[in-house]
Amino acid sequence: MASKSILSFTVIAHSFIVCAAEQILGQFRYSIPEEMVEGTIVGNIAQDLGLNVPLLSARKFLLSANDGERYMKVSLDNGLLFICERIDRERICGQADMCTIPLEIILENPLEIYRGEVEILDVNDNSPTFRDTHIALQMSEAMTPGIRFRLNSAEDADTGMNTVANYTISSSDYFSLKTRRTEEGIIIAELLLEKPLDRELQSSFQLVLTAEDGGNPSRTGTAQILITVLDFNDNPPVFEHDVYRGTINEDAPQDTIVLKVKANDLDEGLNAELTYSYSDVITSRKVRDLFSLDPKTGEIRVKGPIDFEKSSSYSLHIQAVDHGSPAITGHSKVLIKVTDVNDNAPEIKVRSTTNQIPENATPGNLITLIDVIDRDSGQNGQVRCEIPQDVPFMLQRSSNHYKLITSGTLDRETVSDYKIPIAAWDLGSPSLSTNITIHIVVTDINDNAPLFTELPYNFYVTENNSPGASTFAVTASDPDLEQNSYVSYSILDSYIQNLPVSTCLSINSVNGTIYALRSFDYEELKSFQFHVQARDAGVPPLSSSATVNVIILDQNDNAPVIVSPSVHGESSAVETLPRSAGQGFLVTKIMATDADSGQNGRLLYQMVNATDPSLFIIGQTSGEIRTARKILEEDFNTQTLVILVKDNGQPSLSSTVTLHITILQNSSETLTKSSNLVRNSEYLSDLNLYLLGIFSCTSIVFLLIIIVLIGIKCKQDRNNTQEYTSPSYCYKRGDMQDTFNRRSAVEETLRYPGTDQIVRMPGLPQYSVCLSPESAKSDFLFLKPCGPAISQAQC
Fold first, then answer.
1. Which of 312, 538, 599, 782 is most enclosed, with most CB atoms within 10 A?
2. Neighbouring-strand partners of residue 209
3. pLDDT of residue 108
4. Which numeric CATH code is attached to 561-679?
5. 70: enclosing H helix or E strand
6. Residue 626 pLDDT > 80, yes or no?
């Protein structure tokens, strides 16, 4: 069928591409005659626009037109534009000089818009017709030759060359036909009286009026003219103006008077009575429906709705017919100009349905095209369009088209979607406006690394923990969505006491729970540090790390160990005491150590059993055993004491030592027994030898330091201008008995490495000694306590 149609009709088609700044990439135009059969090919639109035919379906090819979709379609298989319904130009466009069907081609992915039109050419498919096929005229015999009588014009639905082009009349001696063309291009036929009539010779005439159009081949239509010769009415009506001009607003209500026409007839009686009416053919039916004409007064009123956007002016042809016999007609023309009012609000049309944009979109990214149209004209048709300024979007204008683009950075974690109101208003008075809302969803990208809830983490773990038990947990969150927010945990490679951290700890990769794989011992390891990494599942993945400080808390798991005096057997020691010792005499000192720390390592000494409890007392914190009174003759020579040493832990742990004290009668006995004790290897242990060596070395080093310091100070005094008289030097040093790690009640501070944690611990006792002035005069050092009375210049 398509090939037959191409053979039967000549299709004039052409297209052209116009580059534009916006997404409207091209325009096209085809011309075809009307009445073509279904299936007739209009043109290869894909080829003319340079489109890839196999991709038309994938790119969502869409032909958009108001009525054009009813008459034409585009085949997605070959890109041909073809007719799907017979086109009647007269039904679509009426008498319009130009008849076009606008078309719009829209392709998505990527977005492209092409606009064009198909011009419908007129063919000569309608013959001229007369509204009345019988025209009756009455002519007075008194009429002089040269009088013209306007005849009813023929109507032809075709346009251009195919409309009425000529009139002819059958041959007659009395009448001829004259034609003229109006400003609107309408041919008017007038019957011309060639010579005077004589009713007595011939009272009537019958003529045939033929209307011929300009088509090829031409078509014709006829009407019968019956002329009756009457007695004369020799004055026709004459209008006051050949052309009347009026103005009316398009929103004028019904029955509003536009203007009034008036004609005069010099005759009298019935020959002067006039009736006003529209000329039959020249004034169209549409105009008659919009304006009414009062036949008696000549007032022209608004009858139907007037729309400036449909027509800005109207032409009316008025005639006045007298009541004479025969009646004579006068003619005039009325031009009505329509004034535009702001009665149309702007129309906003969004060209794309895309409503998603990634949050990493750069400024200037196109979101959609927007058309804003106002059917009014002039200032009423000038339109402004805007969106709020507090959104990262902006409108770029090109004529009445707008592009909605990004103007700033987007962050889905801050704002996940936008509802952008678009307002359009014209410049009329009063202004009319239209508002729509576009919903834009911001899609997520992996732009946020997991964040830990604490930096750093500080956890406390009690020693002797159960291996494999949950110790503590770290937590990280990711504000991204879906897989971009899925967090997994791992421990970064490091070492704890030269062991890989993986041998000591493990972590649940899902919830961040950390498990201890072995039991910790405070006495071996007080704190350590490692790093945990949190990694999301995005592409590419992002990660962050946190430092974890683990502080091992001490438990009271070590009992006190007595290091002095040395014990004989399992838990007994031997000491001697001269009987001449008075009250407060230092018998011995119990020294013990505890591997624990803090309160767990703070030791208390207690005498739990004694041969004579009234003879000895023990310092609760110092462990010094002294005589509580003077030794009496009746006291036993051998006293046995049971000393309990316990720590301050919960629960408390303790050790005991049994001390055998021998009371000697005199000095020689003391020396003898002491010598025997020394020679007896049973009472001289390796530990005592170590302690004696430590005491000796410490004393020697201490004396050497004091001598060096005095020498330096004396040298400085000789170099200074000031003189010092009998200077004394004061030194402070910890109790030498701290060699055995005894804890006193004074506090000291322990700081765990890698943390800000400070723990107060029992400190060491201090004492002060001074160098007396005699030290400068002798090779010996004289030490004395620095009391409060010694000034700061001396100590």
1. 538
2. 169, 223
3. 82
4. 2.60.40.60
5. helix 68-71
6. yes
Q: State how far the Cα of 57 lies from the Cα of 63, in Å rounded to an integer.
A: 12
Other beta carbons within 10 Å of 249 = 15
DSSP 185: S
Q: Are 123 and 216 in contact (CB under 8 A)?
A: no
What stretches of 498-565 adopt beta strand conformation (E)?
Answer: 499-500, 505-507, 513-516, 527-536, 543-553, 561-564
What rounded mean pLDDT belongs to the chain? 79
pLDDT band at 531 (very low <50, low <70, confident <90, very high): very high
Where does 2-121 sit in CATH, by number?
2.60.40.60
402 φ/ψ angles, rounded to the nearest 5 degrees: -130, 145
Percentage of the residues of the chain whose pLDDT score is greater than 90: 23
Chain position carrying tokens 């020396």 = 671
Joined together, the tokens standing for residue 245 give 């001009």
Residue 459, token pair as written in the block: 């956890």
pLDDT value of position 718: 62
pLDDT tier, 650 (very low <50, low <70, confident <90, very high otherwise): confident
- Residue 700's Cβ-count burial label (10 Å; 0-12, 13-18, 19+) is exposed
The Cα–Cα gap between 130 and 189 comes to 12
Per-residue pLDDT at 21: 33
Q: From edge to edge, which strands make up the β-sheet containing 572-578?
A: 572-578, 654-664, 638-647, 603-610
CATH of domain 451-553: 2.60.40.60
The Cα–Cα gap between 559 and 187 comes to 133
Indicate whether 747 pLDDT > 80: no
* Per-residue model confidence as pLDDT tens digits over 364-423: 888 888 888 888 888 888 888 999 988 999 998 877 688 888 988 888 888 989 999 999
DSSP 79-94: -EEEE-S---HHHHHT
Q: Which pLDDT belongs to residue 529?
A: 92
Comparing C-alpha atoms, which of 645, 651, 660 is closest to residue 606? 645
- What is the second-level CATH architecture of the domain 238-339? Sandwich (2.60)
Task: Look at domain 347-443 and name its CATH class.
Answer: mainly beta
Of 386, 392, 405, 311, nearest in space to 346 by CA = 386
pLDDT of residue 25: 58
Quickly state the pLDDT bin for 477 (edges 50, 70, 90).
Answer: very high
Instruction: Decide: 555 and 522 in contact? Cβ < 8 Å.
Output: yes
Spans of all domains in the chain: 2-121, 129-230, 238-339, 347-443, 451-553, 561-679, 694-785
Confidence of residue 111 (pLDDT cuts 50, 70, 90): confident
Residue 716 pLDDT class (50, 70, 90 cuts): low
pLDDT of residue 15: 37
Kindly report the pTM of this predicted structure: 0.47
More confident residue, 479 or 232: 479
Spatial CA neighbour of 332 closest among 350, 349, 320, 348:
320
Buried b (16+ CB within 10 A) or exposed e, 280-318: ebbbbeebeebbbbeeeebbbbbbeebbbeeeeebbbbb
Instruction: Count Cα atoms within 13 angstroms, Cβ side, for 184.
Output: 18
Residue whose C-alpha is closest to residue 103's, from 112, 114, 95:
114
CA pair distance 157, 129, nearest whole angstrom: 9
Other CB atoms within a 10 A radius of the CB of residue 651 amount to: 6
CATH for 129-230 is: 2.60.40.60
Residue 435 and residue 423 in contact, taking contact as beta carbons nearer than 8 Å: yes
CB 489 within 8 A of CB 531: no
Q: Is 189 helix (H, G, I), strand (E, B) or coil?
A: strand
What pLDDT score does 353 carry? 60
795/790 Cα distance (integer angstroms): 7
